[in-house]
Amino acid sequence: MKSFFVHNESVKIHVLENGIFSSKTPSLLVIGGLWEPAERAIPILSELSSHVVALSFRGRGLSSTPATGYDLDDHLSDIDAVVKHCQLQNYCVLGFSRGASYALGWSFKNQQNMRGLILVDQPPIHSKPGLGYVDFWSNLVYLGVPLLNFMRRRALEGLERDAIEVDFSSRLSQLQIPVTFFVGRNKESKIPSDISDETLQLYTQAIPSCEVVKFLKSGHMIPDEEQQKYILEIASFIKKRECK
């Protein structure tokens, strides 16, 4: 597994990469959730036999933390730097949680170079943080680890200050690539799914190609709660996108 940095002007973006590019099997670009560094994708990087790339957005993981620049376009510029550096073509994108809103924003502009999109448990909205956002996330502990171990408070403050809401709902029908939506359906989970029946219906009605995979033992945190099924479903999606 390779670990390296990509420069997006003055911002250093940390990247993990595993596997070898194949003209037959599409590469996978993994876009994590709000606080997730590239290291959170190590199970995918390790277990998929295909070429996989994961990044830590600005302010997360080993990436640098600029004082400003935390809106949607700033995050899309981080993706752009990584895609160009890794020379990704005819690739698939996976976006989890808030990362799915970045994945959507990216896909609307770049689907001509993509082979497919996996969205994981996120409404089609790039949300603007509300009051108390910084303190809430700064004090959160997940699986025994403070979130500030993964994401700097300055980045949370940047999101609260810079992020503008973008609702992608009316544009979903513009997606002409295969889309699969992963949704958690365990209502007893400690962190429940963000997806209502109405939101799920919106995806399936607006995107003709949209397939839904339900994770019955998971809430929102599908990558942890059903990790093996998660990876198997990702592998299945990639295999279906192979060139014959």
How would the blueprint of this fold be written?
Blueprint: E1 2-8, E2 11-18, E3 28-31, H1 42-47, E4 52-56, H2 72-86, E5 91-96, H3 98-110, E6 114-120, E7 125-126, H4 133-138, E8 141-142, E9 145-146, H5 153-162, E10 166-167, E11 179-184, H6 197-206, E12 211-215, H7 222-225, H8 227-240
Parallel strand pairs: 3-4, 3-5, 5-6, 6-11, 11-12
Antiparallel strand pairs: 1-2, 2-4, 7-10, 8-9
How would you portray this structure in words?
The chain is of the alpha/beta class. The chain contains eight helices and twelve strands. It has an eight-stranded mixed beta sheet with strand order 1-2-4-3-5-6-11-12, sandwiched between helices. Helix 2 (about 70-85) packs across helix 3. The protein is globular, with a radius of gyration of 17 Å. The model has no long low-confidence stretch (mean pLDDT about 95).
Report the sheet-strand fraction. Answer: 15-25%
Q: Number of helical segments?
A: 8
Categorize the overall geometry.
Answer: globular
Main sheet characteristics: 8 strands, mixed
Round the mean pLDDT to the nearest integer and report it: 96
Rg from Cα: 17 Å
CATH architecture: 3-Layer(aba) Sandwich
Q: Could you state the CATH homologous superfamily?
A: Alpha/Beta hydrolase fold, catalytic domain
Output the helix-strand order.
EEEHEHEHEEHEEHEEHEHH
CATH topology: Rossmann fold
- Give the class-level CATH name: Alpha Beta
Structural class: alpha/beta
First-last Cα distance = 28 Å
Strand order of the largest sheet: 1-2-4-3-5-6-11-12
Unreliable stretches: none
Number of strands: 12
